[in-house]
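Weekly modeling sync, notes
Attendees: S.R. (lead), two postdocs, one rotation student

Agenda item 3: backlog of single-chain predictions. S.R. asked that every request posted to the team notebook include the full sequence so nobody has to chase files. The rotation student volunteered to paste the first one in as an example of the format we agreed on. Action items at the bottom.

Example entry:
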Amino acid sequence: MFTIRLLTDIVEDTLAKLTKELDVVEDGSDITLQICSAGGLIYDAIGIIDFFNARKLHVTAEVLGYAASAAALLALSCEKVRMGEYGSLLLHSAYNREGVKDEGVERANAIQLSIIKKRCPDFDATLLD
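Predicted structure, as returned to the notebook:
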């Protein structure tokens, strides 16, 4: 099993770094994604999710301490999630730098909610606020 680590915020070049690291892995492989991250840019996290899906990778998330915001969404999108007794996930509504809920933010929240509901069908969307 191949292991990659996300131990920082998800930023503009995170997808590029992860894809380069995964160049040696065959499509359909089992990988472990170790996460300890405060989150970051939601659309970049969605890009990582899309990359995993396009490569048909079987991803197990291992939360090391915490996965917050976009990192929590990334963890929840994986086939399996492992987390220790003291691990934490933090989810919240997406927002832009101006704090305005524009069309992009609404789309990000819809994607986020669909990923959460796959794992937790009874999740109340108002909890994101």
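Discussion: group reviewed the output briefly. The chain has a mean pLDDT of 92.
Action items: rotation student to repeat for the remaining queue; S.R. to check formatting next week.
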